[in-house]
Prior knowledge:
This protein is α/β, with parallel strands linked by helices. The protein has 3 helices and 15 strands.
Amino acid sequence: MFKSRYTEYEDQDETSAASAAPTGVSAADDTVETIVGPSVEVEGDFNSKGNMVVQGTVAGNVRTEKNLRVERGARILANVFAQNAKISGEIRGNIKASDTLELTPTAVVVGDVEASTLIIAAGAILHGKCMMPGSHVTDAKASTKSSRARTRQTGDVDAEAAA
């Protein structure tokens, strides 16, 4: 009778390769190269050139040149580097996605994140700083100080009033 607000994520087949790419990312090359199964516990760094799915636990850095999917119940206890990442499990470390990072409602991230595009679903937990490279945001205090300094140099009263 009542549907969960998380139905979109609950109905997904977590093991399908087609869902390796985050929402909005082309799945043209969706072949999964590496799968860390649900009963697998790995200690050490993982490096891959292809798509990767983590269902178990990895205690070491995870790096892939393509898509990473961390499924519900999975854990990564180190830093993550990927082109695109879709997180439904837990990561205790920093995440750097060169394109898209998606946190689903079951995601728990304790660490800083950096991505060009960031998608955070209701219910996801992010405890850390968020950086989006390529965005040109200036510090408001620094901008105001430099405007006033330019005004003093030129003696333009109207510009000072505008600042």
